């Protein structure tokens, strides 16, 4: 997964994934970002 998020820091990615897992953001949104 490391090469997927060159635009982001690890902490930003972890934050996004945590919010996704909590159901705060849609999978579509994550896919658009990456």
From TrEMBL:
<protein>
    <submittedName>
        <fullName>Uncharacterized protein</fullName>
    </submittedName>
</protein>
């Amino acid at each position: 997964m490391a090469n997927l998020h060159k635009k982001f820091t690890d902490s930003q990615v972890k934050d996004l994934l945590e919010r996704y897992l909590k159901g705060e953001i849609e999978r579509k949104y994550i896919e658009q970002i990456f």
